[in-house]
Design a protein that fits this description.
1 helix, single chain, 37 residues, alpha+beta, 2 strands
Length: 37
């Protein structure tokens, strides 16, 4: 996995149609630990 072991904070996720939501899903699929705000 490309992002395994990385911690990433993502802010301003308004809803499931936002760009930030899609980025978060992609990073999660690559193994990142996400902090959502």
């Amino acid at each position: 996995m490309l992002l395994q072991g990385k911690r990433i904070a993502i802010f301003n996720m308004a809803n499931k149609r936002s760009i930030a939501w899609s980025i978060a899903k992609s990073m999660d699929a690559q193994g990142a630990s996400l902090i959502l705000g």
